[in-house]
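ok trying again, last paste got cut off:
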Amino acid sequence: MKFRSELELQRNLAQALRAKGFDVVREVSASNGRADIITNFHLIECKLVLTRESLLQALGQLRVYALDWPNRTQVIAGCGSVNDERYRATYQDCLRLGVQIWKY
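nice, full thing came through this time. structure:
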């Protein structure tokens, strides 16, 4: 899928998660920012395009937000990616750290 904005991606993902029966809240205030999406099981940071830089940014955001929601699965969601060697290495590092990556 292709989205025009990160906000559109958030809305679409939230709607899909609700359709699967999850309780979903968007743009939730945390002690150090705003989490994009929180479900009863997930802490999700959305990035329109998944690049090495956006993965690292999202990873940092998730780690800080996880201080407020420690028992949620951390997820980076995005709808496109730049598939170069540095991206692939960072992608693998995220997985090794237990962060799921959902591509749309």
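cool. The domain at 6-103 is CATH 3.40.1350.10 (Trna Endonuclease; Chain: A, domain 1). The mean pLDDT is 93.
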